[in-house]
Amino acid sequence: MENQYRERNQKISHRHKNHFPKSPPEQLVEVMTRIYDLRLTTPSGGNISMLDEDGIMWVTPSQVDKGKLKLEDMVKIFPDGTVEGRHKPTMEYRLHQEIYRSRPDIQAVTHAHPPGLVAFSIVKHPYTFNHVPSLIPDDKPVGFSKYAIPGSVLLGQNISTAFTGGSHSVFLENHGIITTGKTLQEAFHRIENLETLASVYIDSLRIGEIINLSAEDLKSAREFRINRNPDDNEHFIDEKELHIRKELVKIVNRTYERKLITAVSGCFSASVDDTGFVITPEGLDIKYLEPNDLVFIHEGKHEIGKTPSQFASLHDEIYQKHKFVHSICSAHPTSVMAFAATATPLETHTIPESFIMLKEIPLIPFRKRLENPEEVASIITPDIPAILLKNDCITVTGTSPFQVFDRLEVAEFTARSILNAKPIGPVKPISHQDIDDLIKAFA
After folding, report:
1. Which of 338, 357, 386, 401 would be a feasible disulfide site paired with 251, CB 3.0-4.6 Å?
2. How far apart are CA 34 and CA 44, in angstroms?
3. Dist. CA 285–CA 189, nearest whole Å
4. How far apart are CA 412 and CA 350, in angstroms?
């Protein structure tokens, strides 16, 4: 059996984030369905397209339910303008064409109406998000396009002009957002992360002044994501590790389904033995994660041919310092990140479950994870299973991936409850005496 896994590992290296190649219609259906399922658009709203290797534009149809698209619904538009398909193409296909003409580097376009991003478009606020670096899709500012009637030539011209500055994403005034990429998945990842950033920003306004990071801080965060520990020798998966990998993938997928992480941000890890652990890779779409995609890390070096999550160094330090920790997650749940983006302590003395599951959650300065992960790791104790890093993430520990997932969701529910309470009245926490009683009752 070990030889079987060894042969498999030798054949399969870290897969491209576009996972396995699919036909243009398959990609369009898949991505549009994800956009709809994530509530980033309505059945009648939004449209996406991509260019194939022959320069043919494949686009979603007009007036077809975005939640029930089929392969045969997709429309082809040839370079000479000929249209082929059972439906009319989206009425906004010309704006897609204008983007492709103005930016040869772009091969895919998504347009949708996510509520958070639409909020910025209807207050005419061309904001550049810089409050959570791990969620920022790239180093280009989000552009802004003046309003024009949907489907009009003027709208296409306005958007084309907005993209000529090098942006990969553009707000449409009183309309929505457009994101682009070299692949359709890359364009999708941009729209998902930007909507998360927008939602965090809006939630933050309920509790305090949002902290926008300096250009220097943003640069440091980008450079940290690029730099990695050296590759190790080839790693072979035994039966025990394969079981751990399979269980971790199940929890990661569940975490994504619960919208506690985005497709390409945040990470999960689990210890394999006293000297090593497996962690999710950087940049691979979580939805398509497989056990072999996880990266094994041993004594600071990672499995050859793979790229571990940017949070690997912090997780490594936590495992080394705390033998009671067997799983860790670093994530960006929307409500929790409102507290991180405003440097507001996340109060756990709200309901018994919150305190019992999370105890206290220390607030850690930004850059600490980048510059001194050892110090951050030392804060974790059995009574401090989670820490909140300003403008960065929440990191949760536990004895198993399920316990970490449970604690992460409790943290998000706690944060959402506090945010929901703000318009009602001041939060009145559980008394110190009641906390002491909880400690005694659940020791």
Report:
1. 401
2. 15
3. 8
4. 13
228-441: CATH architecture: 3-Layer(aba) Sandwich (3.40)
Distance CA 227, CA 403 (A): 30
Two tokens, residue 420: 């929901």
Tokens matching residue 372 = 């001194």
pLDDT confidence of residue 233 = 66
What residue ranges do the domains of the chain occupy?
Answer: 24-204, 228-441
What pTM does this model have? 0.91
* CATH, range 24-204: 3.40.225.10
3-class DSSP assignment, residue 195: helix
Q: Do residues 307 and 283 lie in contact, with contact meaning Cβ atoms separated by under 8 Å?
A: yes
Is 99:163 a contact under the CB 8 Å cutoff?
Answer: yes
Burial classification of residue 339, based on how many CB atoms lie within 10 Å of its CB (0-12 exposed, 13-18 middle, 19 or more buried):
buried
CB-count exposure of residue 15 (10 Å: 0-12, 13-18, 19+):
middle
Q: DSSP assignment, residue 308?
A: B
**Amino acid (1-letter code) at residue 321:** K
pLDDT classification of 34: cutoffs 50, 70, 90: very high
